[in-house]
Each structure stands twice: as C-alpha cells, then as structure tokens.
Design a protein that fits this description.
Number of strands: 2
Strand content: under 5%
Order of helices and strands: HHHHHEEH
C-alpha cells in the first residue's frame, strides 16, 4: 500500500453528493465539525444563565405554546362539531354546508399561523445571534 493521500476527484465530478474533498489537510469549516470537535468552543452554561437568552426562551414559549393550543383546538373542533352538532354543520350556505367551509378554513388558518410563525422566528433568530455574539471567542 502506498502512504500517499489518494487523488481527490471531487473537483472533476462535481456531483451533488460531493461534500468535502478526501485527504483534507486544512482545518474543517465550522459547519462540518462534529459535536465532539466543538466541545469547549462555547460556554453553554453561561449562555443558559444569560438574561437575554432567558428572555428569548420566554418569548418563544409565550408564542409557541398558545399558538399550538389554538391550532389543536381549531383542528379538533371540526370532528367535535360534526359529531355533537350534526344539524348545525349540515346547514347550507349556498351550495356548501358549514362543515365543508370549516374544513376549508383550516387550510387558511394553517397558512396564516405558519406566516405569523415565520415572521416571529426571524426576530428570534436576530435575538439569538445577538446573544451568541456576546459569547464569541
């Protein structure tokens, strides 16, 4: 066997699965580090104790928990209403009944909740970046 590093064909193939060249001699980029290789790079206990981080977590929970409860109640309201109030849900509005309209509204409700979440999450990402910036080495 040869002790030489095998030739790297990555630049020639350019396949979608090409992640990193074989036989790398330089340090790995940050996004390729394993958890063990990152151990000690960040003081997670200090971040967890930081008041800004605690506020961020409280804000996230303050949004996610009520929205999850709302979503579940809204989602399960249809089978409950159809089961316990079938006459109401059979009531027609034009050519469709309340049950079909309610079912259709669930799609719009899910899209609206998702859009609100994406907007909120962008703010959380900025807050998280600000917290991490305080602890960069």
């Amino acid at each position: 066997m040869s002790s030489q590093t095998p030739r790297d064909f990555t630049p020639e193939s350019g396949g979608p699965t090409d992640v990193a060249p074989t036989g790398r001699t330089s340090a790995k980029p940050a996004h390729e580090l394993t958890a063990e290789e990152e151990r000690g790079n960040v003081n997670w206990d200090a971040i967890a104790a930081d008041p800004d981080f605690k506020r961020l977590i409280a804000r996230k929970i303050g949004f996610i928990l009520p929205m999850t409860i709302f979503f579940l109640v809204y989602y399960f309201a249809l089978p409950v209403l159809v089961g316990w109030f079938p006459a109401l849900m059979k009531t027609k509005i034009g050519t469709v009944n309340y049950a079909y309209l309610f079912a259709l509204s669930q799609f719009f409700m899910a899209w609206i909740v998702a859009a609100i979440y994406v907007t909120k999450a962008a703010g959380w990402d900025k807050a998280a970046a600000a917290v991490l910036a305080k602890f960069k080495k």
